[in-house]
Amino acid sequence: MSARIETRPDADQRDRKKVRRAFSSPIASAFVILICVLWTVPTFGTLVTSFRPQADAAKNGWWNAFLHPNFTLANYQEVLVGSSGSNLQGGIFQSFINSLVITIPATIIPLALAAMAAYVLAWVRFKGSDIVFFTIFALQVVPLQMSLLPILQFFSNGVKIGDFQLIPPMTEAIQGFWGIWIAHCMFAMPLAIFLVHNFVSSLPSDIFEAATVDGAGVMRIFYSIVLPLIKPALASFGIFQFLWVWNDLLISKTFANSPFILPITYRIQMMTGSLGSRMDLLTAGAFVSMLVPLIVFFCLQKYFVRGLLAGSVKG
Amino acid sequence: MTEVLLDSLPKFATMLQMLVGFFAIIGILIFAVGLIRGRAQRPLAIIVLLGPSLLLVTVGLVFPAIRTIILSFKNSSSTDWVGFDNYGFIFTNPGQQRVLLNTLCWIIIAPIISTALGLVLSVIADQMKGKAEAIAKSLIFLPMAISFVGASVIWNLVYAYRDPQYEQTGLFSQMVMWFGVDNPPNWILMEPWNNFFLMMIMIWVETGFALVVLSASIKAIPKDVMEAATLDGASGPRQFVFVTVPMIRGTLIVVYTTILIAVLKVFDIVQTMTGGNFNTSVVANEMYNQTFVQFNVGRGSALAVVLFVAVIPLIYYNIRQLRRERSER
Q1: Where in chain B are the domains?
Q2: Which residue of A82, A95, B128, B164 has the smallest Cβ count within 10 Å?
Q3: What residues does each domain of chain A span?
């Protein structure tokens, strides 16, 4: 590539200039700037509102805050830990914790299981391994909605064959986080296996042959060769899965059966109903819920983009 | 806040116990099987490594999907067979027809606008200077990090309604008033346009996705192709239509269908903005509503099946396309 640029610099430049003229006209640049502004202003307005006192936020729009600057952290304090005045039931800090407690295992466990399964499907072939892989591959199509109710019934009724209780029902107390964890893990598997498989299967086969010649067994190859090599793939999918679980509403709305385990998205969604007129609190709450994804976005943008692109078909 | 932290210690403890337990069991199994020498190791390794995933997938997806299809042919409490009654209800009841129509509008409008906007922006951004391009892309891509619930709160504020005799708190109403409209309506109640105001949120989120993916594939177009086009006299816009777009056609379709699938299953936005009221419900929201609010299991399951059937051809096409691209590489 670089050689070609060196040999034909003028043609390359001419070509670039022509395209540039068409698309870097002032109108085109203005268009991009306009979209950037349109795309940023709603978030910015929300951020400004979250720092305005209740009376101000209720009185006029956030753009007035720049004419008469008056900012406070009170909204964040109230939304996080709650106060007697609002029906926040102890604030959403609790839910922030719940989100962490839900998200961490729901990211790590599918990753571990997918690494194991993908390795077998790619390198430890057995009779029917192709069928298994393509079935899992095809299962990505199943929308969550197809599974929600049956899984919920499975949790609360167990499995009965005739009169024989094969698997006992989960008690409400156990169901709590376990229900959400298990549901997230189930829904994560097809995509996780598929993505890690793509990566594992692209490893050069020489490695495996050499290891086998040296006498390493199937398991040994897995933990001492495959695991260290697939770290980048695991990181990308891990970020995607983390954000997916953190931002999820449908699964938590279906499986969270106690007010003490609600994740933050669920609480914010409830607040839009019960505190719809308290924009100062709603916006602060929304920003608390966005905090973690935004940190991931700004700090790990490269992996973030890679993970999102790889996993965007999920759902 | 310290109180809450202390209160939540047991939750973290449960989580840690669970994780430690999980890795202990898996670790011991892997280690134990690793010790076995000879032929027995291979089949045991396959069972240990693949078994848990297969169990999760079978119990979590295969059986439930079959069960949902069965339930969709039963009545509201799953006690009697009703044939195609639930499907008949979905396609003939006026309220449900409205839901289908809304969903149709969503899947036609939102993906086309997001993809088209993403395409135009990616071509323009490609011509911008390094820093400017990166900043513009980041700003437009940022909403992708925000949950649909968060996005809905953000746009709730944009659409906020107040009686025109007071000062406005919503930016949209205020802007309309600056342009000389004295009496802006309550956007969220304004049927059928409220559907489009909700779609705007989806477009806001998905455009960045389209931009980033398309931008990557535009950068991957070989230089000599562009050169040849220029030598043949193709000017900028012609080059865009006849060279750039055909060259990235595959990616364009993947982006479009990916957004289409996301839109088809939109739940969070509708649930947070209107709860499906004011004639804004869509299939995914209605499925939740029928199953978990109205407790009509039959109708809810039938709606899930409708969603499933609608997704199949899209995914089929998407996967085929991805595969073809992969083999070309």
Answers
A1: 2-71, 86-328
A2: B164
A3: 2-81, 93-311
Contact, A114 vs A289, CB < 8 A? no
Question: Which CATH architecture describes the domain A93-311?
Answer: Orthogonal Bundle (1.10)
* Beta carbon pairs, A and B, within 8 Å: 371
Chain A residue numbers with beta carbons less than 8 Å from the beta carbon of B139 are 36, 39-40
Record: contact A43-B147, CB cut-off 8 A? no
Query: What's the pLDDT tens digit per position in A97-146?
Result: 999 999 999 999 999 999 999 999 989 888 888 888 888 877 876 788 88
Q: CA-CA distance, B153 to B41, in Å (whole number)? A: 55
d(CA A283, CA B160): 13
Which residues on A lie below 8 Å from B230 (Cβ)? 11, 14-15, 18-19
Interface ipTM: 0.88
Q: Which residues of chain B neighbour A222 with C-beta distances below 8 Å?
A: 30, 45, 49
* CA B204 – CA B258 distance, rounded (Å): 15
Angstrom distance (rounded) from CA A309 to CA B255? 10
CATH tag, B86-328: 1.10.3720.10
